[in-house]
Amino acid sequence: MENSKGPVWVIGEQVDGQVVTVTLQLIGQARKLASQLGTTVEVVLLGDNIEEQARNIFSFGADRVYLGNAPVLDQYQSEIYTDIIVKLAKEKEPEIMLLGSTHMGRELAPLVAARLQTGLTAHCIDLVLNHENILEQKIPAYGGLISIICPEKRPQMATVAKGVFPEIPMAGLKLKSWPEN
Predict the structure, then answer these.
(1) Three-class SS string for the chain?
(2) Model confidence at 167, in pLDDT bands (50, 70, 90)?
């Protein structure tokens, strides 16, 4: 099937060489969205000595993993991570980009969105495609939910907290739960 839409991206997160749980939860949701769009799931994972972790991500629903593997990437650094992700996004043109609502994601997402001149919805509690295949990013507000869309700019970007989407069964991937505050 030929893709009419760009891929659905998950910006993976690792701490001490272990993939953070929310990354796998986002891959599961990305897989659902990509299936509806007829496109692929791609994960960007930056770190050092994480080749095995990157290979294992395929068993959780990723079609492609972009691995940045170097000592300078071992610990999150906003400028370096932003530069890499923005350059890759301009080249590969993802339709949707999802990040965990972690310390890293809450800092990185707006930096990437600003550089790509696109919208960002933070702290989403649901992500669905509407009848036009545009991502509806749902956030709690005033005792209900508000849907936010980004109808023109790409990628459509959202951060999502750990636990919003179901856990994916672990199959050899070392996970690290990380405080979200």
Answers:
(1) CCCCCCCEEEECCEECCEEEHHHHHHHHHHHHHHHHHCCCEEEEEEECCCHHHHHHHHHHCCCEEEEEECHHHCCCCHHHHHHHHHHHHHHHCCCEEEEECCHHHHHHHHHHHHHHCCCEEEEECEEEECCCCCEEEEEEECCEEEEECCCCCCCEEEEECCCCCCCCCCCCCCEECCCCC
(2) low
